[in-house]
Amino acid sequence: MFKQSPKIYLFANWKMYLDYDESNILAHALSGEVKKFKDAITMAVFPGALAFYPVTQVLSDVKIGTGPQNIYWVDKGGYSGEISAEMYRSAGGKYALVGHSERRHLFKETNHETREKLEAALNAGLIPVLCVGETLKERKDGEAEKVVEIQLRALLDNLKWPAKRELIIAYEPVWAIGTGEACDPGEAEKMHRFIYKAALEFLKVEPVMLYGGSVRPNNVADYLQKPHIRGVLVGGASAKLESWLEIIKSALSLKQ
Ligand code: PGA
Fold this sequence. Notes:
The chain has a single domain, classed as Alpha-Beta Barrel (TIM Barrel), CATH 3.20.20.70. It is built from ten helices and eight strands. The protein has an eight-stranded parallel beta sheet with strand order 3-2-1-8-7-6-5-4. α1 links the parallel β1 and β2. The longest helix is centred in the last third of the chain and has 19 residues. It starts with 7 loop residues before the first strand and ends with a helix. Bound molecules: 2-phosphoglycolic acid. The site of 2-phosphoglycolic acid has 13 residues, from β8.
């Protein structure tokens, strides 16, 4: 059985949904709830850059890790407007999203840049959360596996994975992100199985795999019950306390 740890991974990508005050308020509210789930769940929050530091301070007190939604791959220098992996690490970051589909598609981030970011995250000591997934057209053309394989190869080929660093991969079909149109859990499981095997082949490291794309309180359990899906990466429904608590509750009910 490959489920390495019995903990469920619930990762919250707040995207650009919350301003500074809203981020801090949500972090404080979350920290007040944490006792109820701390042993059963590995939780991480990806806040916006502006509120990253105060949110990290509040959440690290209750053992919730944080990470940036995006990083730049050079540590320091004349790169106006960018924030490096190393800078986030020095502000208390533990994880980093790498290759989120909004970065790939809205900001035209290439597979090559995604690899640079992955290496920067590893060098800074962060745990990267690698995001892969196909567009609707690619799925309709029967190319989902091929596209995801290319993304994984660009990320992982000839990479030396640091000992004891978790390998976390989120399968996030582009068409399911922020659309309310979640991927059928059986289809998601198929893709997770494919990614699991590919990642093992590239790195000889067992990945922890998350599903992302329109996860809601009413569907989260359907994903978590699948054997290759260890957790979820949630956008919209993680940026509101009520729906995030509902998701946690639903995940915890599977442990009983
Ligand atoms: P969503 O986003 O839950 O709002 O669909 C998921 C993600 O982008 O990680």
